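Open question from group meeting: does this chain pack into something compact, or does most of it stay loose? Before anyone orders reagents, we agreed to write out a predicted structure and look at it together. Recording both the input and the output here so the notebook holds the full record.
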Amino acid sequence: MSSQTKTPDAIADSPRRRLSRDERLCQLLDVSWQLINTEGTDALTLGRLADAAGVTKPVVYDHFGTRNGLLAALYQDFDLRQTAVMDAAIAASNPTLKDKADVIASSYVECVLTQGREIPGVLAALGGSPELAAVKRQYQKAFLEKCQTILAPYAGSQGVSLASLWAMLGAADALSQAAVTGDISEQQARDELQETILAMVNRSK
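Structure tokens returned:
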């Protein structure tokens, strides 16, 4: 995408219709993901986003403040969608440990693959400053607490340990990224992560 090419979002945003603040935020996030996909995370600046979205720089600064603020908003957007996918799948799954483990594994890998090459760059950028690392940790902890709750009925009396959950998250990240780069298949990533979760819960008994 050249700097002169507007995204479909920008083209569709007619000046005759002013977007609400929430609609504008959604548009800016969508355009940000498109820019990351085509130009990489390093190219994503507030000025570049304003140009691609067809808005003035003050509009972008009003929403995000800084580039770190934009990256944090992108991570939040990713996390919210990942959480929604998992919640829906958990609610529809059978009440067995194997099914719950499969949902956690499948939802995690599928969500990372949906973002393709975009999320690794955002995650790398998030880890580059204490401010953004704190944002990432906030959402990581929320995910681990969710998994702990889901798996509690199948674990021992003490539940699944936090150390085990952090190890599982490390495996989930590594397997998902290996699937993104094509080193392993999506199914291999899902199967291995499911086995990791099952082993983790069984160790807690």
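Observations to bring back to the group:
The longest helix spans residues 67-92.
Confidence is low (pLDDT under 50) at residues 1-14.
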